[in-house]
Design goal:
CATH topology of the largest domain: Dihydrodipicolinate Reductase, domain 2
CATH superfamily of the largest domain: Dihydrodipicolinate Reductase, domain 2
Largest sheet: 9 strands, mixed
Number of domains: 2
Strand order of the largest sheet: 15-14-13-12-8-11-10-9-16
Length: 450
């Protein structure tokens, strides 16, 4: 494929696009509706598009193509053409899906910051949104505006302004009958569902506390500044190393530890916590990167119930992911491939002979809903869990105890209004609790004014 496929412009505006899309719907302007109509069973061949062909994008493509017998990979987009082409070549090697790659797809592989527009214009029916999270609200709005069913990888935003934009767009998605799938995959897991159903049915009684751990190794460490290619702009350098900047990734708690936060939300039936406090920081130098490598957050619920999340990425250290949920009648434990209850109502999950991946299961349910006309919508849930994670991160950044209402009403907008791929973009300092000039959030005063 030649470089001429890079048809995108050099700058994009998240906030303006979302506002324009919402305004058009609110005033009754002409808006597109899905080609797979809500409420009517459909057996057409569904065209899949993907925006963001990194590790998660490649996995989502495989999940989507395996989820339905009558689909085809139709269009792809990534910031870098070579990355999209590399992922296409990978997919074509798998016998299980190679026949679902459309003929002529090479002419529908796009690159650049605005490649999502070309993917949508190519005529897809469903789209996988797997770019860095900062772009999620904008890409979600574009997909809904085009009448395309979106898969939205977690989290749905990196700041409160983005969550609000996302949820505003979700109302338009509902009006159009679009099915929205989110990437909080543990709620689709074969062992998670029966465990949390038992918790909700009272198997461990009233929840007294939760302790949730995500101990892992470093991800996408920031390279040396000297490795930056000559002529690469500030913006491109940060996007290329997106994990290391809070405005792009949300930091580790929001981008990765959000799975733990989501399971806490699941345990409490998505009730809002009263507040959060915590601490965090960085133990290992990371060049120009400004994310933390550890967070410890306590969420408070009514009746003095506490939920604790510990997330960290350390080298050569003990790794573990799991939850301990303590109730008045027993203790529930959740691991990445295990689930059990001890106490008055003991139970242990048995792994089936042919287990199914939670990633595959969520896509199967999504496509099943699109086919049957039984609309699926994870929007409120992903918005709530993303807000919870942002609350925890902001509490650690600021060193303050922050209530849910304070967080929701705060001014927090980390993503630049206009993203110019050729422009200057100074790196914001790492957040230091108690040091006001490093902070990124303005909270309302006692009268509710910011």
């Amino acid at each position: 494929m030649s470089e001429k496929k890079e048809t995108s412009q050099n700058d994009t505006s998240r906030r303006n696009f979302v506002k324009t899309t919402g305004a058009a719907a609110a005033t009754g302007a002409a808006i597109g509706f899905p080609s797979v109509t809500f409420g009517a069973p459909n057996d057409k061949k569904l065209k899949i598009g993907v925006v963001g062909t990194g590790g998660r994008g490649g996995g989502a493509m495989m999940n989507a193509m395996n989820a339905d017998d009558n689909v085809e990979l139709w269009a792809m987009g990534d910031l870098y053409l070579e990355e999209a082409e590399k992922k296409l070549a990978m997919v074509q090697k798998y016998a299980s899906v190679r026949d679902k790659v459309s003929d002529g797809i090479e002419s529908r592989v796009f690159s650049g910051i605005d490649c999502y527009k070309q993917v949508l214009d190519a005529g897809v029916d469903v789209i996988l949104l797997t770019t860095p999270p900062a772009f999620r609200p904008q890409h979600f709005a574009a997909a809904v505006d085009a009448g395309v069913h979106p898969f939205v990888e977690k989290p749905c935003a990196t700041d409160i302004a983005g969550v609000k934009d996302f949820l505003a767009t979700s109302k338009i998605a509902a009006e159009k009958g679009l099915s929205v799938l989110c990437g909080f995959c543990y709620r689709y897991s074969e062992h998670g569902r029966p465990l949390f159903e038992r918790i909700h049915d009272g198997a461990i009684g009233d929840i007294l506390s939760i302790h949730s751990l995500y101990y892992a190794g470093p991800v996408k460490a920031m390279p040396e500044p000297s490795s930056r290619p000559d002529g690469m702009s500030d913006t491109e350098w940060q996007i290329k190393n997106w994990y290391n900047f809070p405005w792009l990734s949300g930091d580790g708690l929001v981008e990765q530890g959000c799975h733990n936060v989501d399971r806490i939300a699941w345990a409490f039936n998505d009730a809002d916590p009263l507040n959060a406090c915590g601490s965090g920081g960085r133990t290992r130098p990371n060049n120009e990167g400004t994310i933390y490598d550890h967070f410890s957050v306590t969420y408070e619920y009514p009746n003095d119930v506490k939920a604790h999340v510990e997330w960290r990425q350390f080298l050569n250290s003990y790794n573990f992911t799991g939850d301990t949920i303590i109730g008045t009648k027993g203790i529930a434990k959740f691991g990445t491939s295990s689930a059990q209850i001890t106490g008055e109502n003991p139970w242990n999950w048995r792994k089936p002979r042919t287990p199914k991946s939670m990633y595959d299961l969520e896509h199967e349910e999504w496509f099943g809903g699109i086919r049957s006309g039984d609309r699926k919508d994870d929007s409120e849930w992903i918005g709530h869990s993303t807000t919870m994670a942002i609350l925890g991160r902001t509490a650690c950044y600021s060193g303050k105890q922050i209530t849910w209402d304070q967080m929701w009403n705060a001014e927090q907008d980390l993503v630049p209004e206009n993203i110019d791929m050729n422009g200057e973009l100074p790196i914001r300092p790492m957040r230091i609790p108690g040091v006001e000039e490093t902070q990124d959030t303005v909270f309302p005063d006692s009268k509710g004014q910011v």
